[in-house]
Amino acid sequence: MTFAHRPKIELHMHLEGAMPPEFALELAGEKGVDLSASIEKGQYKYQGFLEFLKTYEHVTSVITTPEDYYRLTRAVLEQSAQNGVIYTESFIAPDFCGGGDVAAWRDYLAAIKQAADEMEREKGIMMRAIATVVRHFGPDVAKKIGICAQETAGDFVTGFGMGGDENVGKQGDYKFAYDMAREAGLGLTTHAGEWGGVPSILQAIDDLGVSRIGHGVQAIEDPKLVDYLIEKNITLEICPISNIVLGVYPKMQDHPISRLKEAGVKVTVSTDDPPFFHSTMNKEYSNLSDVFGWNEQDLLQIERNAIESAFCDKETKEKLFKQIEGR
Ligand code: ADE
Ligand code: ZN
Questions:
Q1: Can you state the angle between helices 139-152 and 102-123, rounded to 10 degrees?
Q2: What is the mean pLDDT for each group of 10 consecutive residues in the chain (327 residues)?
Q3: Which CATH number fits domain 9-322: 3.40.50.720, 3.20.20.140, 3.30.2350.10, 3.40.47.10?
Q4: How far apart are the CA of 82 and the centre of ligand 2, in A?
Q5: Which of 11, 73, 143, 261 has the fewest CB atoms within 10 Å, measured from its CB?
Q6: Distance, CA 163 to ligand 1 centroid (Å)?
Q7: Strand, helix or coil at 278?
Q8: Which of 217, 272, 277 to mutate to test the pocket of ligand 1 (most atoms within 8 A of CB)?
Q9: Which amino acids are annotated catalytic?
């Protein structure tokens, strides 16, 4: 099977984490920043999850203006469109867009949205933004991010999420920010069950009230939790290649995506941070086919799941359903 032209829906990709190393080096050159600690032979350099987060933050430090984010957004959406992605939800951290200041965040968002609008016209790819907390910056910083999200919630910023080090604190420590986002009508997701195990997923559902979970793969360790995910109709944003490269599972054959799907959990597939993991949507699809034997119907199912769980309005969903059904 070839997957290149299959229309795809992606719910979990970090805009900063999708920055190609050559793009980072170009910006670093313009600003006189030395990235040699983080990029070697044109590739991001890190070992393990915590070093990944450090490298991620180091290279993100070269994106310092709305214009930089405008260029980044265009570059990232171009690559997604090349992989057949027709709708993408992108995590964007206000911490990196003006340090959590609402006025600055608005300026960055305007630039990002301008790039997104252009790419929708040029390539037919639609983008929505998920304002994102960096967990290890702590709950007090997260409150500011909740305010940023609340102030800019609308047609473009449609979701609220949290990434970063899952082992710092508890999901419930960030309840204030999530309550603000919920009041603003935003869709809610958080990274859970990538590193924090079953308790982290339970806290995400019960303490933050999310409808989607970033990764969530460790739910497979507890059949009762698997049933709970189904009962609550929680969607998992699964990023298989990311999980293998970061060492959540030793090899793709061990990944639980197929078992979760078979059990009846609503699963979707995304790339997380493509250049860090050498993931693309086409590669994710071919792994699902080659390693787990997924066929057309299986792929259609995850695409439908993604549209149903997307943080966008009904009209957009109807448009997307038409595009995937009418191919
Ligand atoms: N931020 C970017 N990628 C992430 C991941 N895989 N886990 C947690 N935070 C992240
Ligand atoms: Zn992620």
A1: 60
A2: 88 98 98 97 98 98 98 98 98 98 98 98 98 98 98 98 98 98 98 98 98 99 98 99 98 98 98 98 98 96 98 98 87
A3: 3.20.20.140
A4: 21
A5: 143
A6: 5
A7: coil
A8: 272
A9: 194
